[in-house]
Design goal:
The protein contains 18 helices and eight strands. By secondary structure, the protein is of the alpha/beta class. Strands 1-2-3-4-5-6-7-8 form an eight-stranded parallel beta barrel, surrounded by six helices. Helix 1 runs parallel beside helix 5, helix 14 packs antiparallel against helix 15 and helix 15 runs antiparallel to helix 16 (412-428). The longest helix has 20 residues, at 38-57.
Length: 473
């Protein structure tokens, strides 16, 4: 099965021609299907389609076939069901985040697309799979003249009450930082961590089951931060909820005074401490962004039902310029923007050359003018930690030069913080970058020093820091 699937990708041009012939044949057979009755033809058509596409593509019969727009690689073979991939966890060799022994199906699909004459990566995101159509024949829908649902369309960005948004729109270089929720039900444990963030960053990004490990919920911590006068960025992961629960959480977040939402697909369950948990992945990060945008701008749920009071949220996503396929990353960013992303935060940056190349592509497409890009940074405590991160955390790229510098340092922890400060200062000089996102797990005490030593907030225009700074309750 795997060999045939890879054969289909290698011969994507032939498969694309066969697909065009199939479309013509289905169109010609439409009168016959109509005479027989589409409902009566559905079952045998689904059986034939399942066996043919199952053999060549390991098809999952999702009902909304994306083979023709993904280089003849079925995205439903992705363990995270990512229909707008690749995710940010692709390994350096193109391996899957959740199953390292298999190639990322979107990397395979990208290779297939290069072999298809005239093929272009779709600019608009693909719609999510529909459980209602699972197991049904997409061929019969084509015969009826019903094609795959139209791609998600973008909409003008809506201004919200977010302080983070105001700073970014004003052209200030912003600083956000990641907050790791405690393994506790005591709100005092959240308050105890805030001193490392208050008055040092513009917004606090609250993780949602990061690394597929269980902690206090992002929504709960974010509500506590609002009460404390801070500016949270609430993460929502698609791993643990279906679209009903996610849309309910979006309304709940807005009702609690949260103004910033970061939409993530989420880490695979196999990498965390609940490897036996059932993953959901009903949506991926792009269809989650689209859901939030539709709720906000059109005042309706994905079902079409009207919302009495739409949420007012500043929408963000994640990006990773540091993993393959590199030339696809700016194109995927464009799709996230089309889905509704107004800002993105990237994975750790330790490779300035790779970032410069990525930002050059971003500027060529004018994406930095449509979305605020915050680059991820963070201090590394030792060479051992650096090696662990790049081998055990999919999506983290750390060059050998950084590891060697930590290895040779008399005080590796202090050296790691110096490296972080240097990176922040260099990143600030790259045209199109709107800010940095500090990730310092177990080093929250370093955040104030990193911001101070980098000088990024000290350079801010008078009054801007006060406008965004959280008030003390």
């Amino acid at each position: 099965m795997l060999a045939l699937r890879r054969w289909s990708v290698r011969h994507a041009a032939f498969q694309a021609r066969a697909y065009r012939m199939l479309l013509a044949l289905l169109g010609a057979l439409r009168p016959a299907f109509k005479a027989i009755g589409y409902a009566r033809a559905e079952k045998p058509a689904a059986w034939v389609e399942s066996n043919v596409k199952g053999l060549f593509f390991d098809c999952h019969m999702c009902g909304y076939c994306l083979l023709s727009v993904n280089g003849m690689a079925c995205p439903m073979n992705c363990p995270k069901s990512v229909r707008n991939g690749p995710c940010g966890g692709v390994r350096p060799d193109g391996g899957c985040e959740a199953k390292p022994q298999m190639q990322c199906v979107w990397v395979e699909g990208w290779r297939g697309m290069q072999r298809m004459p005239g093929a272009a990566f779709p600019r608009l995101p693909n719609p999510p799979a529909s459980a209602r159509h699972a197991g049904t024949s997409s061929w019969m829908r084509l015969a009826r003249g019903e094609h795959t649902p139209p791609p998600i369309s973008g909409a003008p960005a809506t201004t919200t009450d977010s302080r983070l948004e105001r700073l970014l729109r004003a052209g200030e270089f912003v600083v956000t930082a990641e907050f790791s929720p405690p393994d506790s039900a005591d709100p005092a444990d959240v308050s105890a961590q805030l001193g490392h963030f208050r008055d040092h960053v513009d917004a606090i990004n609250v993780t949602d089951g990061s690394g597929a490990n269980c902690h206090m919920s992002s929504l709960g911590v974010s509500a506590l931060l609002v009460q404390a006068g801070c500016e949270p960025v609430t993460q929502i992961s698609c791993r643990d909820r279906n679209r009903i629960a996610i849309q309910g959480d979006i309304l709940g977040a807005a009702a609690l005074g949260i103004r910033n939402l970061l939409c993530l697909t989420g880490d695979g369950t196999t990498v965390g401490d609940h490897a036996d948990a059932k993953p959901v992945f009903d949506l991926d990060s792009m269809s989650l962004l689209q859901a939030a945008r539709v709720m906000r701008d059109e005042g309706r749920f994905l079902s079409g039902r009207k919302i009495i009071q739409p949420p007012r949220l500043f929408l963000g996503g994640a990006d990773n310029p540091f993993v393959p396929p590199f030339d696809m990353r700016p194109l995927r960013l464009a799709r996230k923007i089309a889905a509704g992303a107004q800002f993105v935060q990237t994975q750790y940056c330790f490779d300035l050359d790779r970032l410069e190349a990525y930002m050059a592509q971003v500027r060529d497409e004018g994406l930095h003018e449509r979305c605020h890009i915050l680059i991820g940074v963070g201090p590394i405590a030792s060479a051992k930690t650096a090696r662990w991160l790049r081998t055990r955390v999919p999506g983290v790229h750390i060059p050998d030069a950084i590891v060697a510098r930590l290895e040779g340092a008399e005080n590796p922890r202090a050296e790691g913080r110096r490296i972080c400060v240097e990176l922040i200062q260099a990143i600030r000089g790259i045209r199109g970058v709107a800010g940095v996102h500090i990730m310092a797990p177990k080093q929250d005490d370093a955040i104030a020093g990193l911001v101070r030593d980098s000088g990024v907030l000290a350079a801010r225009r008078p009054g801007r820091a006060r406008e965004a700074a959280p008030s003390t309750p």
